[in-house]
Amino acid sequence: MKLATLDNGRPDGQLVVLSADARLCAPHPAWPTLQQALEAWTEAEPALRALAAQLSTTGTAPSAQAFDAARALAPLPRAWQWLDGSAFQSHGDLMSTVFHMDKLPYDERPLMYQGLSDRFLSGTADVPLPSEADGIDFEGEFGVITDAVPMGCTREQAAGHIRLLVLINDWSLRRIAPVEMKTGFGWVQAKPACSVAPIAVTPDELGEAWRDSRFQMHLQVDWNGQRFGLAHAGAMAFGFDQLVAHAAYSRDLVPGTVIGSGTVSNETYREVGSSCIAERRAIEMLDEGAARTPYMAFGDTVRMQAKFEDGRDGPFGVVDQQVVKG
Amino acid sequence: MKLATLDNGRPDGQLVVLSADARLCAPHPAWPTLQQALEAWTEAEPALRALAAQLSTTGTAPSAQAFDAARALAPLPRAWQWLDGSAFQSHGDLMSTVFHMDKLPYDERPLMYQGLSDRFLSGTADVPLPSEADGIDFEGEFGVITDAVPMGCTREQAAGHIRLLVLINDWSLRRIAPVEMKTGFGWVQAKPACSVAPIAVTPDELGEAWRDSRFQMHLQVDWNGQRFGLAHAGAMAFGFDQLVAHAAYSRDLVPGTVIGSGTVSNETYREVGSSCIAERRAIEMLDEGAARTPYMAFGDTVRMQAKFEDGRDGPFGVVDQQVVKG
């Protein structure tokens, strides 16, 4: 099942169910917002699936309309909680290089921070930021949205609470990041609001591409129209089941908790490229002695698109946006 | 003006205005929740103040009742954002001792992390946590609640967006804290939900005790009925105006953003005591070579009460709660 949220002038928007081909959408009268659906997912899911089936089979439903991704907000336009992992070791190792820090541990427990969740920008929104001097960077990653997860749940139980899958652009200010990181307190200024591609999908939509609680897909990233990366997201050191269980150790997770993978990255980064600029700069530091690729300038664009292993487009729609002076 | 939120079975509760003596309370029909009031504070504040004046002068108002702190939730039972500083250098220096880490910088920019804000526990709620072995600790601190703060605002502008003042118990799991801190990602597992004393007040309620964007008050902390600390909160290295402006560097702050001071602490900690157990353990490490005070056991209680400099009780009501097996 594919879900999106249309802009209706309200902070949580209007939840719509999409047809299988994502050309049509329709609201469900009982579930006006995705947050409300997630708060009662066992009731909401069958009702939403029935509407999706009707829309896909008959091509119509009450208030059905063509789905226009340009009118979509983030699937969950705001959430009570955003916990972002850093589950790709090749990314972590490169970031330690670019930030001149010791390598982070990847053998015992996931890395995770709590980030800004009072808004998620749409995949096409302009992104207002204060200064090019801060080292503006995109970060392509995948994420999951849970329903209510009890404190202390196991990894296996956690897997069952992963209800929706999303594609995220986690904006970062790289010149502030190491300053905040060295305090041990994590990031505040270095992590403004994330953007999210327009369509959230249930795990079954990915078929075999959702396996081991990981997205077995490539993430295609273009910067100013030039291919920048095509890394595979299956390389996570910890699966999303482990990330959810880690997050729930000492807290219940509220419905609509969003948990991210961290920047998609492969050890073969010299061949497949990267999902953020900082990684390329780290590779340049390793290979050429100094970073030469600049961070983003105002007006720069970034485009992200998930790709199945056979090259078909993933179901999330695209992130395609520019950064502007805020 | 004094505000509180009563439990009405809904997540945001029922906002009530208190009489000046905090004996009576009444709802305002136009402002059912504190979040809604904060989203339109310039409209809401005069209406709520008019009700408070009526209640204080006449002793009655529609739906007025005796204010029962035991029925109160946290003033803001959930918020879109909780950003906690660590603005007391004597606390930071002692924590570096207890965590065996280098001292943190206090000379340039505030320390701040983003924490769990999907719920704030009431000041009297039992606090369920997974294990005594995690090093369960209270942390007494003060906090402010803002209305909408634009990105990039100055310290002076930020001061004007501080709308309400609160007393917070920021629960911490001390054996996890340094593990998470050493990654640079900040705390997730080490920082479960905070508790908040029942009454939020506008800054004018403190009179001269709100000065330099700091609480010029003592925080009295008792652990299992024994006095533990009576530190003065005026010793912040950065005022709340600076904390708010720091938080708003690369993000707008949504109405209802809660910003904390970090544990109240004084350099005279050997005389005035501490607002958390970890500090006392650090002092023992410095003075006696090893920590001997244990962290909390299930069933332990902590009580926190703000005190004016002349010894009068502060207006926030009390935190008085026990920690239980979750």
TrEMBL record, chains A, B:
Span of domain Fumarylacetoacetase N-terminal: 1-78
Entry's Gene Ontology molecular function annotations: hydrolase activity
InterPro entries recorded: FAA_hydro_N, Fumarylacetoacetase-like_C, Fumarylacetoacetase_C_sf
Transmembrane segments: none
UniProt domain Fumarylacetoacetase-like C-terminal: residue ranges: 84-310
Keywords (A to Z) from UniProt: Hydrolase
Name of this protein: Fumarylacetoacetate hydrolase
Gene source species: Ideonella livida
